[in-house]
Design brief:
Blueprint lengths: L3 E6 L10 H12 L3 E7 L4 H7 L4 E4 L16 H7 L3 E4 L2 H6 L4 H13 L3 E6 L3 H5 L3 H12 L9 E5 L13 H19 L7 E5 L7 H5 L6 E4 L6 H10 L2
Parallel strand pairs: 1-2, 1-8, 2-3, 3-4, 4-5, 5-6, 6-7, 7-8
Length: about 240
């Protein structure tokens, strides 16, 4: 059985004062030992967060694919690991949209993170226009095929399906739509790495709340949630953790 994982993504939000929210989140994680809980925070907060809540998996929101070099403003996998990160997100839809990142970029970043011993949450998902054109399944399959790093296995890699039109909008696909995409994602991973695909968790991300978390995570092949805005406060994030139980 794959353990449920509820992962938060603070995006470009947060300051040192907000780390008090992690105290409550960590307590909720301890109260539900059957669920894995993780939070990706801005690079400026990784060290302080990892030090404050050592029982909680703290991660980075992104890493550069190079180990070092003339990449002003970027951070490497080694840098975030040294700061205390245990994992990183790569290929997030917002980076694909606003930073023009490709699946090849996500592949390189996942490989760089793996070389540094970090776990990886690799994101995929279609735009609203792609879904309306009936291309959602093909887009997700292609992104997985182009992004999946060598040596992919469930002990360090998680896939997150996040329909880009649902992120931060309050809109979510139907449970049937979520089930369909997760099934084709599982099939594509199995095609690429064989039986090891059965150990790779696939999260759903896109306007997950305490009200819909239990239903979404009850869908076949949904192994947890990647949560954006609702992870910024314990009041909104903890009910999602409870929905994974």
């Amino acid at each position: 059985m794959r353990r449920k994982l509820v992962a938060g993504n603070w995006k470009m939000n947060g300051n040192l004062a907000m780390l008090a929210e992690l105290d409550v989140i960590a307590a909720a994680a301890a109260a539900h030992p059957g669920v894995d809980v993780a939070v990706a925070v801005p690079a400026t907060l990784i060290a302080a967060a990892a030090s404050r809540v050592p029982t909680l998996a703290i991660g980075a929101e992104d890493v550069h694919e190079a180990e070092s070099g003339a990449y002003t403003g970027c951070v490497s996998a080694a840098m975030v690991r040294e700061a205390g990160a245990r994992f990183t997100i790569v290929g997030h839809s917002e980076r694909r949209e606003y930073q023009n990142e490709t699946s090849q970029d996500a592949w390189a970043k996942a490989a760089a993170a793996r070389r540094q011993g970090l776990s990886v949450i690799l994101c995929c998902g279609e735009t609203g226009a792609e879904r309306d054109a009936g291309r959602a399944e093909r887009v997700v399959q292609a992104q997985i095929e182009k992004s999946l790093p060598e040596g992919a296995s469930g002990d360090w890699l998680t896939i997150a399906y996040e329909p880009r039109w649902a992120i931060g909008t309050g809109r979510t696909p139907t449970l049937e739509d979520i089930a369909a995409i997760h099934a084709i994602a599982r099939a594509k991973i199995r095609q690429l790495i064989g039986a090891a695909a059965d150990d790779v968790r696939i999260l759903y991300g896109g306007s997950v709340t305490g009200d819909n978390a239990r239903a979404i995570m009850g869908v076949a092949d949904v192994d947890g949630a990647l949560v954006g805005g609702a992870s910024l406060t314990a009041a909104k994030f903890v009910p999602i953790i409870e929905g994974a139980v």
